[in-house]
What we know:
The chain has 117 residues and is mainly beta. It has strands at residues 2-7, 10-13, 18-26, 31-39, 46-52, 57-59, 67-74, 77-84, 93-101, 105-107, 111-116.
Amino acid sequence: QVQLVESGGGLVQAGGSLRLSCAASGSIRNINVMGWYRQAPGQQRELVAHITTGGTINYADSVKGRFTVSRDNVQNTVTVYLQMNSLKPEDTAVYYCNVQLIWATYWGQGTQVTVSS
Protein backbone atom coordinates (compact mmCIF):
# COMPACT_ATOMS: atom_id res chain seq x y z
CA GLN A 1 0.00 0.00 0.00
CA VAL A 2 1.10 3.52 -0.79
CA GLN A 3 -0.44 6.66 0.65
CA LEU A 4 -0.24 9.89 -1.35
CA VAL A 5 -0.65 13.46 -0.17
CA GLU A 6 -0.73 16.16 -2.83
CA SER A 7 -0.22 19.87 -2.27
CA GLY A 8 0.22 22.96 -4.37
CA GLY A 9 -1.87 24.17 -7.26
CA GLY A 10 -4.11 27.21 -7.38
CA LEU A 11 -4.78 30.22 -9.57
CA VAL A 12 -2.00 32.02 -11.39
CA GLN A 13 -1.70 34.46 -14.26
CA ALA A 14 -0.20 33.42 -17.57
CA GLY A 15 3.57 33.48 -17.37
CA GLY A 16 3.56 32.68 -13.69
CA SER A 17 4.84 29.67 -11.78
CA LEU A 18 3.49 27.03 -9.44
CA ARG A 19 4.96 23.99 -7.73
CA LEU A 20 3.10 20.78 -7.01
CA SER A 21 4.21 18.24 -4.43
CA CYS A 22 3.16 14.67 -3.82
CA ALA A 23 4.45 12.82 -0.77
CA ALA A 24 4.32 9.03 -0.88
CA SER A 25 4.58 6.81 2.18
CA GLY A 26 4.08 3.12 2.83
CA SER A 27 5.57 0.60 0.38
CA ILE A 28 7.90 3.16 -1.15
CA ARG A 29 10.69 0.63 -1.74
CA ASN A 30 8.55 -0.91 -4.47
CA ILE A 31 7.97 2.30 -6.40
CA ASN A 32 9.17 2.18 -10.01
CA VAL A 33 7.81 5.41 -11.44
CA MET A 34 6.43 8.64 -9.98
CA GLY A 35 4.95 11.48 -11.91
CA TRP A 36 2.10 13.73 -12.86
CA TYR A 37 -0.89 13.51 -15.16
CA ARG A 38 -3.48 16.16 -15.91
CA GLN A 39 -7.04 16.24 -17.12
CA ALA A 40 -8.74 19.29 -18.57
CA PRO A 41 -12.55 19.50 -18.84
CA GLY A 42 -13.80 17.29 -21.64
CA GLN A 43 -10.33 15.89 -22.26
CA GLN A 44 -8.64 12.60 -21.53
CA ARG A 45 -6.12 12.35 -18.75
CA GLU A 46 -2.64 12.80 -20.16
CA LEU A 47 0.91 12.33 -18.97
CA VAL A 48 2.69 15.54 -17.99
CA ALA A 49 5.98 14.16 -16.69
CA HIS A 50 7.38 11.20 -14.84
CA ILE A 51 10.63 10.05 -13.32
CA THR A 52 11.75 6.48 -12.80
CA THR A 53 13.66 5.09 -9.87
CA GLY A 54 16.68 4.97 -12.13
CA GLY A 55 16.35 8.67 -12.86
CA THR A 56 14.92 8.52 -16.38
CA ILE A 57 12.62 11.47 -17.02
CA ASN A 58 9.94 11.93 -19.65
CA TYR A 59 7.93 15.04 -20.44
CA ALA A 60 4.95 15.73 -22.61
CA ASP A 61 6.03 17.78 -25.61
CA SER A 62 3.69 20.57 -24.56
CA VAL A 63 5.56 21.17 -21.30
CA LYS A 64 9.18 20.58 -22.30
CA GLY A 65 11.38 23.49 -21.34
CA ARG A 66 8.77 24.88 -18.95
CA PHE A 67 8.11 22.12 -16.39
CA THR A 68 10.59 20.22 -14.27
CA VAL A 69 9.89 16.99 -12.41
CA SER A 70 12.08 15.85 -9.54
CA ARG A 71 11.95 13.51 -6.57
CA ASP A 72 13.36 13.52 -3.07
CA ASN A 73 13.78 10.69 -0.56
CA VAL A 74 13.64 11.61 3.11
CA GLN A 75 13.45 8.81 5.68
CA ASN A 76 10.20 6.93 5.00
CA THR A 77 8.77 9.35 2.46
CA VAL A 78 9.39 9.90 -1.23
CA THR A 79 8.20 13.20 -2.65
CA VAL A 80 7.78 14.01 -6.32
CA TYR A 81 7.65 17.64 -7.36
CA LEU A 82 6.45 19.39 -10.47
CA GLN A 83 7.86 22.87 -10.95
CA MET A 84 5.75 24.66 -13.54
CA ASN A 85 7.10 27.85 -15.09
CA SER A 86 5.85 30.05 -17.92
CA LEU A 87 2.36 28.75 -17.37
CA LYS A 88 -0.18 29.09 -20.15
CA PRO A 89 -3.98 29.07 -20.07
CA GLU A 90 -3.91 25.71 -21.81
CA ASP A 91 -2.14 24.27 -18.77
CA THR A 92 -5.37 24.67 -16.84
CA ALA A 93 -6.42 21.25 -15.58
CA VAL A 94 -6.69 19.01 -12.57
CA TYR A 95 -3.25 17.57 -11.92
CA TYR A 96 -2.93 14.07 -10.48
CA CYS A 97 0.05 12.50 -8.82
CA ASN A 98 0.75 9.00 -10.13
CA VAL A 99 2.84 6.29 -8.49
CA GLN A 100 3.52 2.97 -10.16
CA LEU A 101 4.62 -0.19 -8.42
CA ILE A 102 5.14 -3.53 -10.13
CA TRP A 103 1.70 -4.75 -9.09
CA ALA A 104 -0.34 -1.59 -8.65
CA THR A 105 -0.83 2.03 -9.61
CA TYR A 106 -1.88 4.74 -7.19
CA TRP A 107 -3.40 8.15 -7.89
CA GLY A 108 -3.49 11.27 -5.80
CA GLN A 109 -6.73 13.09 -5.13
CA GLY A 110 -5.98 15.73 -7.75
CA THR A 111 -5.26 19.42 -7.43
CA GLN A 112 -6.69 22.19 -9.58
CA VAL A 113 -4.34 24.43 -11.55
CA THR A 114 -5.97 27.41 -13.23
CA VAL A 115 -4.02 29.79 -15.45
CA SER A 116 -5.73 33.03 -16.35
CA SER A 117 -4.92 34.94 -19.52
